[in-house]
């Protein structure tokens, strides 16, 4: 096990290239199960969630090849092997195996998903959707058992706008008989990306990216080649860093339209941003103004950038309020930021940040992926050395982080944990 060490206080300058989107990748890889011939996905990020999904596809008989950032999956010999335990518990997105295996095999046994602890993360809308398509579902000893004699298209209204439920229902519905209509669907760019892959595989989907998606089921799906969209959350993280300590940071391979809410907020703070077709240039001013943000479903401000943005707000003059309407308990980074001298109070679903303060280096722990991002941003903003443990969370979502940060002029390195630190981590 390793920790991330950061010598903070140095400005960042130069170009960073964004990798393929994690939250697309983790759905696109399970979606390959639905095809009957090889599917190639280009532009995959180098993150641990991709590795885990590769292993899971191999467990059910898939032949998977990865070269550089390209994965080819031959799903022709896959079988509906039960996956009640083990690696499925390591990531949230293993729930996409339910929709994909139900679609292809009409049965699946999948352990309840793991992932970041952001408060309660129910999957009732996924289950509601599968049941509407004709599946019988039981929950036995921490695993979900799904079975259908036949999947039939249905009209499904999501009571909660959910990215996961929208994609999961799409995965099963492409192989159902007849038409499925998902109402109150989520509109995130990752949903369009998955719909594009499925369409290239022969599926009939209309309306992805709007709140009504229509799917006409087909009898079989075939292989294809697909290029994944850039990771808007990784891009946003580097934009926040550019605003905090950048002296001219160019973020390359980004779709600026995916980040309009962040760009608007950064401009409100006084950050200079220029955006091109697939690049964004960020120049951090010496004085930042306090702003309020409220996380919302797309195209609102993304909850996944709430924690990184909080780190930036410690540098802004005045009082900022950050409210998370998606995950009301996504505040585990706050105590760690306080150790670094941040002045933040949490009240219900909101964090109130008073600034500006100069952050100090400290030993801190990432409790989840984006808390980790908040902490490495804070470490780069701070005076002195910061040590971030819980690196396994950060490795789930940030491809080649150390190389990318050092490429911008940061001084960041990984170091093995001492025996004493390992013991301490086990006990906390
Ligand atoms: N919800 C329900 N019932 C459900 C599903 C969701 O009540 O059946 C609630 C959730 O508890 C939450 C809200 O609906 O309050 C939205 O959840 P959603 O289903 O949209 O989230 P998700 O699909 O589980 C994905 C991303 C998250 C990101 C959220 C919101 C993946 C693998 N994960 O999660 O990404 O925060 O959408 O945009 O795509 C991250 O990247 O750090 C991360 C956590």
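-> sequence recovered:
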């Amino acid at each position: 096990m390793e920790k991330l060490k950061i010598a903070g206080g140095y400005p960042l300058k130069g170009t960073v290239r964004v990798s393929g989107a994690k939250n697309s990748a983790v759905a696109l890889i399970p979606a390959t199960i639905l095809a009957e011939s090889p599917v190639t996905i280009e532009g995959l990020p180098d993150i641990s969630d991709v590795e885990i999904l590769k292993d899971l596809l191999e467990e059910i008989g898939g032949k998977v090849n990865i070269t550089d950032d390209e994965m080819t999956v031959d799903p022709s010999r896959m079988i509906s092997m039960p996956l009640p335990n083990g690696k499925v518990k390591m990531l949230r997105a293993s729930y996409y195996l339910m929709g994909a295996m139900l679609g292809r095999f009409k049965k699946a046994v999948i352990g309840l998903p793991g992932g970041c602890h952001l408060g309660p993360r129910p999957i009732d809308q996924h289950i509601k959707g599968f049941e509407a398509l004709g599946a019988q579902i039981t929950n036995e000893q921490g695993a979900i058992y799904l079975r259908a004699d036949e999947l039939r298209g249905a009209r499904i209204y999501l009571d909660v706008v959910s990215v996961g439920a929208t994609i999961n229902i799409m995965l099963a519905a492409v192989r159902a008989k007849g038409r499925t209509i998902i109402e109150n669907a989520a509109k995130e760019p990752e949903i369009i990306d998955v719909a594009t892959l499925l369409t290239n595989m022969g599926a009939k989907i209309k309306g992805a990216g709007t709140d009504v998606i229509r799917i006409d089921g087909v009898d079989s799906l075939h292989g294809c080649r697909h290029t994944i969209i850039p990771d808007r959350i990784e891009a946003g993280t580097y934009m926040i860093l550019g605003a905090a300590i950048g002296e001219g940071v160019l973020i390359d391979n980004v779709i600026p339209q995916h980040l309009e809410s962040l760009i608007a907020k950064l401009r409100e703070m006084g950050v200079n941003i220029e955006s091109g077709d697939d690049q964004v240039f960020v120049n951090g001013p010496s004085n930042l103004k306090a702003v309020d943000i409220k996380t919302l479903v797309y195209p609102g401000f993304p909850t996944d950038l709430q924690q990184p943005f909080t780190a930036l707000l410690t540098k802004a003059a005045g009082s900022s309020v950050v409210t998370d309407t998606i995950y009301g308990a996504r505040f585990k980074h706050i105590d760690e930021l306080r150790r670094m001298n941040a002045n933040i109070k949490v009240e219900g679903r909101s964090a109130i940040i008073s600034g500006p303060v100069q952050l100090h280096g400290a030993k801190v722990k990432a409790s989840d992926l984006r808390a980790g991002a908040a902490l490495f941003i804070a470490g780069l903003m701070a005076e002195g050395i910061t040590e971030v443990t819980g690196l396994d969370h950060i490795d789930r979502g940030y491809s080649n982080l150390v190389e990318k940060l050092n490429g911008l002029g940061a001084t960041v390195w990984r170091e093995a944990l001492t025996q004493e630190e390992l013991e301490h981590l086990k006990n906390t």
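The chain has two domains: 2-19+230-426, 22-227.
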